[in-house]
Design goal:
By secondary structure, the chain is α/β, with parallel strands linked by helices. It is built from 6 helices and 5 strands. It has a 5-stranded mixed beta sheet. A hairpin with a 4-residue loop joins strand 3 and strand 4.
Length: 153
């Protein structure tokens, strides 16, 4: 059975020749998210941005889902750490998430390019941290400068 279907708690009947779906939008418990696996490419959480998200939420703004990679056991957050912090501060226990099938390593690679063109702009320290994550990896560190730049956003 597809691990994303397990995550979503849905088991639709098999349909012959139907393409495999590799991502879903679901509501996840925040306590079930892994935030400790090197998938946060920012240096720190920006309190002002968390406050701005809280104010938007209180006005009824529906924020986009966070992104999570699911490896069959762990749900690795790759994007939306400020939204997660806002929910925690407000006592909200669940959050909408776009769940993608993938490993912790896939999640780390996805995270280094996040927020290059949307959300809270990355600081120079955040950008350097993303590049260093790639350079210090035995596989990714072998990439060309152009590939590193593309991967880091």
């Amino acid at each position: 059975m597809n691990i994303l279907l397990q995550l979503a708690g849905a088991v639709p009947p098999p349909v012959p020749d139907e393409p495999k779906q590799t991502e879903f939008i679901v509501e996840l418990r925040i306590d079930d998210l892994r935030l400790d696996g090197g998938t946060q490419s920012r240096e720190s959480i920006n309190r002002g941005h968390v406050q701005a998200l809280a104010e938007a939420r209180e006005r009824g703004v529906v924020l986009p889902p966070i992104e999570v990679y699911f490896d069959g056991q762990n749900r690795w957050a790759t994007d939306g750490f400020h939204r997660i912090q806002d929910c925690k501060n407000a006592g909200i226990t669940t959050i909408r998430a776009r769940v993608v099938e993938g490993t912790q390593r896939d999640a780390i690679l996805a995270s280094v390019g996040k927020n290059s063109d949307h959300g809270l702009p990355r600081t120079n320290v955040d950008k350097r941290r993303a590049v260093m994550t790639l350079l210090q990896d035995t596989e990714w560190g072998q990439w060309s400068d152009r590939e590193i730049a593309r991967g880091a956003g």
